[in-house]
Amino acid sequence: MTKKRNTGNSGKNRSSRHKQGKREARRHGARQRQSNRARRESNRSRHIPESLRSYITGVVDMKSTGKAYILPDNKELEDVLVMPNNVGHALHGDHVRVLLFPYRSGRHLEGQITEVLRRSKQNIVGTIEFSGKYAYLVPDSQNMNVSLILSPEGLQGAKAGEKAVARIVDWPPHLNSPIGEITAVLGKPGDNNVEMQSILAEYDFPLQYPKAALEQAKKMSGEITKEELSVRRDFRGIYTCTIDPADAKDFDDALSYRRLENGNMEIGVHIADVSHFVKPGTPVDREAYDRATSVYLVDRTIPMLPERLCNDLCSLKPDQDRFCFSAVFEMDSQAKVLDFWTGKGVIHSNRRYTYEEAQAIIEAAGLAQDVPGDETALKKTGDKQDIEAVCEMFKLSKILRDKRFKTGSINFHSKEVRFKLDPRTAKPLGVYIKESKESNHLVEEFMLLANRHVAEKIGKVKDKAQAKTFIYRIHDEPNPEKLAVFSQFVGKLGYKMNLKSRSGLVKSFNNLLDDVHGKAEQNMIESIAVRTMAKACYSTRNIGHYGLSFPFYTHFTSPIRRYPDLMVHRLLERYLQGGRSADEEEYEERCLHSSEMEKKAAEAERASVKYKQAEFLSDKVGMVFPGVISGVSKWGLYVCLDENYCEGMVPLRSLNDDHYQLDEDNYCVVGVHTGQSYKLGQAVKIRVQEIDMNKKQLTFAFAR
Fold this sequence. Notes:
704 residues; alpha+beta; seven-stranded mixed beta sheet; five-stranded antiparallel beta sheet; 31% helix; globular
């Protein structure tokens, strides 16, 4: 069942936070006494000796009501409820220390936040408001329950009603609201650029590149000297191509193909050699590490590296010599790897394909599923060398893909919501789903092959004493309780899961994903299935990748847009040259940072999608659309629209034909008097009732 945050009283939040800010400003400099409730809670624990008190640490999940749940660092512990008067100065996402109250039977475990160990946010985005001589920043986030008090000298020229970014500079113990200062004025709400910058700042991504890093990148040279060539393998005489989206600007991977004299094929996976340009500790490196990843919003890419590098020097452009880090495979016709080499090289890409162009070759050659070949069309796609390379590489990739699923990989179908945008205003004109085809699979399988073999080369040792510190992309086994809940859920929709063994589970997962393909409940089941699985992350402590069923796996193939890949290149080069093992704790810390930033980037991307969905429907209030109930909660029913994949909520309070209650066991809401029910996966028709652009919220009503 999809769980959603309570938004029932969110409409009052901005007003209440603003009033709270005014009260705080008037009392600024004066002590505020604790509430009677807070004193009682404090006194209740004070008589317990310190040695007997129980503390935990965890992350704050703040609700719009002001209460919070603490997600313990120890995953075996249950969440801890913290009432508003015991939250103190903690904010959403902060890492905190919590004093646990004595357990009361039948009640949720409660506690009090005693210390903020680490702030989660550097930047707070909101709207400027004035009251008399005082100014406030009212945060956009519904998880931020306090306004920031701004001093006149800290406004940076911001005007009332404008969006701005602020940071907390002080939070006196006697105040419930922090003191802040403006770090960037963004502009008027509703402007596309302002909204996209707001999303970036909300997730702590910088709005511009530091001058020192830009200056360093400007001075870099891509010249291929004789000295550099002497220590690299030269692939420039071998047919090489890139296959990327039509709008791609940076090309960080290329594939080379040639038929060997023994009849086998040599496939080269060539990756942009970012490590040649970006040295540890330099301005560009420090900024790339802080960002850790490129961010892909609906209308723009925020690159990890300066444009001089990602779109020029490092990019594997056609008809230009480029430095690369390569993984080269000798393979037979059954895609068996007979030999593997990795090291630094130089390539010269013969051609740049879009996915559509490569797909046209595959289809015209009769290699795509359910598409007849067309010899005439095939001749128009390229010369003999082009066609042979793409077709032979695709045949090998298909064998690799089939083997992978037979040996335990889970076939999650990736669907991405994309928008057709007005080139002038970036206003969404249409919504569509981007689906992977055979040309995508071709590239994907060789990237997976390279990632797996590079990880095995370093990590697969007979003597553990010889193991070297390396960065792995790991994916833990799913939680058995979550699996049981998911199995029960799909069982009520008529699908069966086998939880008795890993092989049975993987087979039933893949069968389920095939069975729901094209059905009304597809998006809902696929999204819940993904949430049932553990989250993949980076670590020096290898546990394998459950979803791919690889005992060794890393990220080697995208150093232009992922910092972990750059670290993998540096470590790999170090070990190939006989270097000693790197410090594990140092790299584990870097892995944690990279995983956190990856998560933030994904959240920022989702936020931009939600904003564009709200913008797309903003002129369609009153219109009726078919959809599917994609989530149920005690507050309302979430509906995903068939035509444009926008998701909004039908509040239960708006259903005036009965009083509806949540039936958690059956994933539905049921009318107390009539027995009328609305269940997960049910097809419905809705009317667009209200669009809140600021909150990125869509409110629907059932169409009668």
